[in-house]
Amino acid sequence: MTIDRKVIWPAAVLMAAIFTSFVAQASSLPQEKELLRANAIESMVEELGLRESDTPVREMPGWSKPEKVLVLSRGYWELEALQAVAPGVEIVMVESADEAVANVAGAQAIIGYCNEKLFTREPGLHWIQVYTAGVERCLANPGMHGAERVLTNGQRIASPALAEHSIALMMALVRGLDLYHQNQLKGEWRDIGLARGDYMELDGRTMLVVGLGGIGTQVARKAHGLGMRVIATRNSRREGPDYVEYVGLADEVNDLATQADVVVNTVPLTDQTLGMFDAAFFKAMKPTAYFISVGRGASTKTDDLVAALENGEIAGAGLDVTDPEPLPRGHVLWTAPRVIITPHNAGRSDRSWDRLFLLVQENLRRYVAGEPMYSVVDIERGY
Q1: Element (DSSP H or E) covering residue 281
Q2: Beta-ladder partners of 129
Q3: What are residue 88's phi and psi, to 5 degrees?
Q4: pLDDT at 26
Q5: What band does 1 get if pLDDT is binned at 50, 70 and 90?
Q6: DSSP label at 198?
Q7: 366 among known catalytic residues
Q8: Is 296 an annotated catalytic residue?
Q9: Which of 181, 134, 125, 184 has the alpha carbon at shortest distance from 155?
């Protein structure tokens, strides 16, 4: 196989090729496999906008070339593929948190887990790679603070799937599919008799994306492709892609909500975003507008959302995240009007795990080599 290193191949094609190579143990030479992997990484970085740290990890306090790394197996995580990028490093695959704690002694890094028992058992842990984009649970551990640790996460890896899920929730609501599905379950063929204007055409309508990060950018791109006008907010700067008409700062969110026909919440959970979608926000929305949430459940005040739905202040909601979570049986959200709920699985797809493995493999290679790493989290900011 001859691969032009200068060509940015479609990430999905490259990921499929590299996983076929690993799983089937194809007879290609090692350098060809490495070239294929490098092309896949480059393409994924380009496609998702993965961020590389400004500082090589070798220049960060506490780094030394690792001798032992623990890895939470995901079933098809290939030990051979990880060893190929970390020669001379002992890689220990574990299947549970208890197994990780039992084997963590002497490890300089752990991939897939973050909890206080690990830090207590092995204070020398320097690099923690979590698989999720959200890091609030990891940062809740006291051992993550006041120590010389490097935290990387899975930010942007699942953003294409999350964006498509957001669009799916929006489309179902604006076409009333949630109501028709209720009729289907009862075996009833009947028109719901919705009033004029209850079926919304999206072309020319306005979407507000709250949190123009990796997920939000993908949502905005897909909404623009549907002919929607897209506006957005982000925490600290106004830059955005050409297909976003206006990027406001966080304190503009309620004013921008007055323009929106659809609001999509993609924010991480921080002190600033906790409970930001509250009664005042929902009152600012149009009564014909829909609220989609794929960020973090605790960014929304659930009682205020329920009140807005019951009082007709908004038209409906599509929720992949809730507060509390899991949403308990009998909770009022299950029966609130015009609500579609999915169990925090919007990021899953046939490609998300492949992207995650590529990120983990590349970050492992970079950590061992002391190079700048991808998706380094600012531990104090929380993202």
Answers
A1: helix 279-284
A2: 111, 152
A3: 85, 0
A4: 38
A5: very low
A6: -
A7: no
A8: yes
A9: 134
Marked catalytic residue, from 296, 355, 365, 366: 296
The encoded tokens of residue 34 equal 């490495």
* Whether 149 is catalytic: no
Catalytic residue among 47, 344, 351, 371: 344
Neighbours of 81 (CB within 10 A): 20
pTM of the model as a whole: 0.86
- Better pLDDT: 29 or 200: 200
CB neighbours of residue 242 within 10 Å: 6
Of 220, 251, 222, 254, nearest to 234 (Cα)?
A: 251
SS3 247: strand
Please state, in angstroms and rounded to a whole number, the distance separating the CA atoms of residues 144 and 141.
6
Both tokens of residue 327? 């949403």
Q: Which two tokens stand for residue 128?
A: 């923690």
Q: Residue 317's beta-bridge partner residues?
A: 291, 339
pLDDT tens-digit series, residues 113-122: 999 999 999 9
Is the pLDDT at 20 greater than 70? The verdict is: no
The residue among 194, 216, 215, 198 whose CA lies nearest residue 207 is: 216
Supply 267's token pair: 């924010």
**pLDDT computed for residue 146 by the predictor:** 84
Segment 204-228 shows an average pLDDT of 97
Burial of 142 per CB tally in 10 Å (0-12, 13-18, 19+): exposed
Q: Taking Cα atoms as reference points, which of 79, 60, 270 lies closest to residue 151?
A: 60
CA pair distance 52, 247, nearest whole angstrom = 23
Q: Which of 52, 59, 310, 325 is catalytic?
A: 325
User: Is residue 359 within 8 Å of residue 154, measured between CB atoms?
Assistant: yes
Quote the mean pLDDT of the chain: 90
